[in-house]
UniProtKB/TrEMBL annotation, chain A:
Pfam families per UniProt: Adaptin_N, B2-adapt-app_C
Organism this protein belongs to: Aotus nancymaae (Ma's night monkey)
Membrane-related topology note: Peripheral membrane protein
Protein known as: AP complex subunit beta
The Beta-adaptin appendage C-terminal subdomain domain, residue ranges: 778-879
SUPFAM superfamilies listed in its UniProt record: ARM repeat (SSF48371), Clathrin adaptor appendage domain (SSF49348), Subdomain of clathrin and coatomer appendage domain (SSF55711)
Domain Clathrin adaptor alpha/beta/gamma-adaptin appendage Ig-like subdomain: 671-769
Recorded family membership: Belongs to the adaptor complexes large subunit family.
Automatic annotation (TrEMBL), chain B:
Binding site for a 1,2-diacyl-sn-glycero-3-phospho-(1D-myo-inositol-3,4,5-trisphosphate): 364, 366, 368, 377, 379
Bilayer-spanning residue ranges: none
Biological processes annotated in GO: clathrin-dependent endocytosis; intracellular protein transport; negative regulation of protein localization to plasma membrane; postsynaptic neurotransmitter receptor internalization; regulation of vesicle size; synaptic vesicle endocytosis; vesicle budding from membrane
PANTHER family referenced in this protein's UniProt entry, alphabetically: AP COMPLEX SUBUNIT MU (PTHR10529)
MHD domain sequence ranges: 193-457
Protein name (database record): AP-2 complex subunit mu
Gene3D superfamilies per UniProt: 3.30.450.60, Mu homology domain, subdomain B
Subcellular location: Cell membrane; Membrane, Coated pit
GO cellular component: AP-2 adaptor complex; glutamatergic synapse; postsynapse; presynapse
Gene responsible for this protein: AP2M1
Amino acid sequence: MTDPKYFTTNKKREIFELKAELNNEKKEKRKEAGKKVIAAMTVGKDVSSLFPDVVNCMQTDNLELKKLVYHYLMNYDCEDPDPLIRALTVRTMGCIRVDKITEYLCEPLCKCLKDEDPYVWKTAAVCVAKLHDINAQMVEDQGFLDSLRDFIADSNPMVVANAIVALSEISESHQNSNLLDLNSQNINKLLTALNECTEWGQIFILDYDREAQSICEQVTPRLSHANSEVVLSFLELLPKDSDYYNMLLKKLAPPLVTLLSGEPEVQYITLRNINLIVQIRPETLKQEIKAFFVKCNDPIYVKLEKLDIMIRLASQVLAELKEYATEGDVDFVCKAVRAIGQCAIKVEQSAECCTKVNYVVQEAIVVIRDIFRKYPNKYESIIATLCGNLDSLDEPDARAATIWIVGECAERIDNADELLESFLEGFHDESTQVQLTLLTAIVKLFLKKPSETQELVPLTTRYSDNSDLRDRSYIYRCLLSTDPVTAKEIVLSEKPLISEETDLIEPTLLDELICHIGSLASVYHKPPNAFVEGSHGIHRKHLPIHHGSTDAGDSPVGTTTAMNLEQPQVKPSQGDLLGDLLNLDLSSPVNAPQVSSMQMGAVDLQGGGLESLLGSDLGGGIGGSPAVGQSFIPSSVPATFAPSPGPAVVSSGPNDLFEFSTGIGMAPGGYVAPKAVWLPAVKAKGLEISGTFTHLQALQHMTDFAIQFNKNSFGVIPSTPLAIHTPLMPNQSIDVSLPLNTVGPVMKMEPLNNLQGAVKNNLDVFYFSWLIPLNVLFVEDGKMEHQVFLATSKDIPNENELQFQVKECHFNADTVSSKFQNNNVYTIAKRNVEGQDMLYQSLKLTNGIWILAELRIQPGNPNYTLESFPHCVFVKFVKDQMVVDVWLSF
Amino acid sequence: MIGGLFIYNHKGEVLISRVYRDDIGSQAADSAVFSSSGPFLGERLGGVVRRNAVDAFRVNVIHARQQVRSPVTNIARTSFFHVKRSNIWLAAVTKQNVNAAMVFEFLYKMCDVMAAYFGKISEENIKNNFVLIYELLDEILDFGYPQNSETGALKTFITQQGIKSQTKEEQSQITSQVTGQIGWRREGIKYRRNELFLDVLESVNLLMSPQGQVLSAHVSGRVVMKSYLSGMPECKFGMNDKIVIEKQGKGTADETSKSGKQSIAIDDCTFHQCVRLSKFDSERSISFIPPDGEFELMRYRTTKDIILPFRVIPLVREVGRTKLEVKVVIKSNFKPSLLAQKIEVRIPTPLNTSGVQVICMKGKAKYKASENAIVWKIKRMAGMKESQISAEIELLPTNDKKKWARPPISMNFEVPFAPSGLKVRYLKVFEPKLNYSDHDVIKWVRYIGRSGIYETRC
């Protein structure tokens, strides 16, 4: 083609000749002819009459000729007057997935994207995605992405839908995953298309739009359109937090139930998804429980799934389960009986009724064991029945369960020894599980009724080849021979209660699955990367990350960084980390692991510390609410204190105040899970901490909160349990006040005001430490006698002294004095030396430590030299002679 | 998205194979074969790579010994979605995390489309129409993404006669119909007689305890419309929806009390895409431009105040170990002037049944050993009647300890009313451009209530 000679022929007979050449037997000739045809076409000659002959040539193994033929085809078909044919061409050509052919695809595709017919557009849109798959660079270079973006505004809904599909497909493998800016304008366009397009198009659009909340309201009517995946797609885009979600879920319940009367396959998909939903919001479908009753001719997979959900919704379904226990399919019956057991554990009243179900004795016994464990000493009446059934048991599970029951209730079964003996006969033929249980049961029996069991005890386990068994029996033997009392304690100890919920999906996985509602992941109950290869679908969804609480978010990052320069103790990267934190929700998860021990929102309330405090806004500040008082630690005057290492530890407090040293609770995805920012607030007496849990990680709800502190310098302990009664939903924050007092055990901490603690919830235990702002520990009787002050100050060794400068304060001595007094810092004396005001102050901490200070104010000079502190630190014995040697404050 | 679509016969032979994505059948399917079926299968396959995915499904699902435990199977990272229609398996294959319900909906739609083109989905029909099927698959799935699958639209340009030469107008009409806002109707339809038929088709489902307590009951209904109307008619459909009735009834309290009784509470409803949802949402009125011919206007589900057309009262008595006495009474519970048809009561019998004696007052009853059931058929039965069957079942003594599961007694019937109580109040037709009015349209309404799963435990 590059050969110029092909372009030169210009005769009338040309077509005829070409025709002959195309049908020539020699390959070479045909190729030549092909080149000529393309050349003719390129210079604008009509060679369309050669169509059948050219197509004939397609059957060749010569790549060059083949390409020429394709090129010819695309050129002619793309100009066909029938849009159906034009579209067909571009569709088919897109499927020829050979890299070398794509260059020929480019031009026709370009034409098709500018076609006049919507049918061609919608096909071309998908073709762009196909092309991207083969040659992404070309799509970029040719500006096809822009064409797609333009299609979003098209009036034809199908064009919009296909453009969206293409964009989302491309974005999966594109470095810029957000190819379409979902601004309100675009969203409106999508919504318009949504109203008009086919059910498939609706799904494409709904799946794409994860900007959820803003459009949820508007797409709710969609629920009334036709098919199931629309409903599920909708579910997927629901916002995952807030009451709004609950409300919408309620609206969704009826359509979901309707899906359950559809085809079995869709029922199954729906049930699998409902299974996820009921794990986070059981209340949504509670009223609909009847919908999950099993029908006789449901396929087995639907039955099993329904059962699973019912267990979760449980309680009034017991009778229903009883019916199932009589069904045919063995798997199903077993599961049904297990379900009854689980119900019994969940609902106390039903336990009684359960124990009467003996249809499938083996399974039932296993269940009964669980019931016994949950409600010991309640249903012993059943034991007799049980013992009657012993012979019929052949499943190891059931045998073991029976033995366990016998051992556990040995004192109530008269012939317990005989029963166990009967099992012993065939000891070596039993499965390990039964052997182990039997061993323990015998020991129990021995401990309970030593007289009867003597002959059983020489256990025959010595010759067993199972090491577990030998070990266990050895331990028992040792225990029994040396210290029967301890043995009793160990063997017959209280058993921990068995938990109510079974088979729950692990929370982090559940969260991920909730994000994937409707997709295959939600059907398999597995994360997508477990069954999808490569990049496809993996980064399809990000767990929303919530950035710090408002407090953290609001803090000026700049200030923090500035502080860092002057405070070597503070991790130098803090500022960066804060930056990372705030950026977290924008960046890909890859970033996250680096922030392993994340410094949570290093809020610099103190940064401006005294400066701002004593600064212009002081008027409203310091005398006012207790909350403001927290920033009232003058120690954070940065200018002067860097050289004095001791106290600096404490003075880093204000910055570290919000620092978290947690590094645990990682999500499998690598997210870091420091969970909380704690903001101390001041109260008149004692410390009040308002805690904000910030969900960085995932969409799991948290319940069962508890808090505990380590021993600390001030004996600060919570005076009431942590009162968080409602589950903490994803992205939700709860303000909790925790009253504290200082009567707990004391241990010196480093730094002194360090408080370590742990918050526990249903997921994990999260450890943290923060520094108590000292000012909250100032007590009201901190006013020292004048004489005592003088005497004490002389006793303070020099090395305990500290000196700071307070900058930019425009107050006179009296104002300062009164402001301090509001915060329990008392002025003992005031002097005027050489035109400077000298304030002598004292304060007392909750643990009885005194701190003395001298404040020097030069009128007119806004920089107070809170200078030389001749008696800054006061040595004091705290409980148990423990010396607190560093004292500080101003 | 869908990577490929295969159709198999019951032997697992591939009848149709259409692959949309390269990922299907490449290395993953290799590992599928090796991981799930061992080397033996790998040997047999060899050769064409793509076949592997196809075969993996046959081996793991169609030929699986165990009953299928899920309609979605993941074999070595390839997911197979399957539905079965008589002896034919349709399987959609994907390697991505797709919208699962969508894939199934697509398969159903595919079945509908094929049925609309060549009737029953059978091996013979598929073999006879395979070119057509490939053509359809090319059109309704592009790169694995479902495209327009409305039979009406497809039939305009996928014909078995080949594409006729069309004028430019015709062509653009086709394309705008396939892609456009009102894809379900083309312009310029003309009928000499404007006529429409409304069928309210309901299936009533019941699960009743032996004591006669309703455990669960619901009606799932469909309003199917056949329209033969000229032009672009604007239709408005009205029924005794409780919410609408109450809204309207506010003015006249009298009417509320009168009609309020007859109104029904709809739990959930879905519409054909021609219905303007925004209007339904705001005014709860159902307005639309109907497709030409037959379509399903809406689906709904109700659970309250259901008229249960029949009550089944079972009595099973075990006489010794080798005999069962069964007595079943059925009572019809509707207006005496109406007639139920095709009544069939199915009383399950134990597996070890050796003989059955049946006496019934009405209709015919037979013990069908192959189905393990006594089937009692009654052609017609008027409302407020009662009929009875009694049977003695003799059992073979067995040493099988497993108790007989006593499956529920099920019933089939057809009644000429809507068990949900739904009534069509009006269907108004406006065609502003053409010369006919609402009064000129001939309208027919018919109610059919059928049994869905109508079971009474015994």
